[in-house]
Amino acid sequence: MASDLGITHLILEMDSFLVVHMLQAKKGVEGLAWTLFSDILHLLRTFSEYHVQHTFREGNFAADYMVAIGQNFSHGITMFPEPPVELTGNGDLKGKGEDVNNEVKAELQGNEVRTDGKEENGGLENPKGVEEYGDDNNKEERQPDEETGIKLKEAKKKLLWMSKRKMN
């Protein structure tokens, strides 16, 4: 759907540190979840540039809201061409794909968004975030504390459950 809006530069935020780490490393889990993981990577590669980053659960209110209203729909995929009014304030996002794309490109580059659609520092040379989010060679290994370790185990269980559900 993002590509249908003309978005070519994507920032994917999620509250599962384990999944973020796997997507950044481009190394998934073995078994049933591999199919789901591989599908996600394939979709991400359709964008000119993408970054996957962690957000705390408290910052992921939009996803929580969508899950809550999704309980009212039948099983399967329900697409929302525009976010619900409760999330945007006005619900009118038609024709905003280019604006969103410019904002994401500017954030990736550390530039300010200009109203004329041009970035302050121009181009995509050395975009901010490549080393920060995707370069495995320079990444320090971070050991999760006990609470994070528990959350990682829960995330892995969720990912496996999702892949089993997809297989059925």
Structure at a glance:
This is RNase H type-1 domain-containing protein. With about 170 residues, this protein is mainly alpha-helical. The chain is built from seven helices and two strands; from the N terminus they run E-H-H-E-H-H-H-H-H.
What does this structure look like?
This protein has one domain (3-92, 130-167): Nucleotidyltransferase, domain 5, CATH 3.30.420. 45% of the residues lie in helices and 7% in strands. Strands 1-2 form a two-stranded parallel ribbon. Residues 91-98 and 111-145 have low confidence and may be disordered. Helix 2 packs across helix 7 (146-167). The longest helix is centred in the last third of the chain and has 22 residues, at 146-167. By secondary structure, the chain is mostly helical.
Q: Within the CATH hierarchy, at the fold level, what is the topology?
A: Nucleotidyltransferase, domain 5
The whole-number mean of residue pLDDT values reads: 64
Question: Termini, distance in Å?
Answer: 24 Å
**Which structural class do the helices and strands define?**
mainly alpha
Count of the separate structural domains: 1
**Overall 3D shape:** globular
Strand order of the largest sheet: 1-2
Treating each run of at least 4 consecutive H or I residues as one helix, how many helices? 7
Low-confidence stretches: 91-98, 111-145
Beta fraction: 5-15%
Q: How many β-strand stretches?
A: 2
CATH class: Alpha Beta
User: Radius of gyration from the CA trace?
Assistant: 17 Å
Biased composition (Basic and acidic residues): 93-106, 128-142
Protein name: RNase H type-1 domain-containing protein
Domain RNase H type-1: 2-67
InterPro entries: RNase_H-like, RNase_H-like_dom_plant, RNaseH_domain, RNaseH_sf
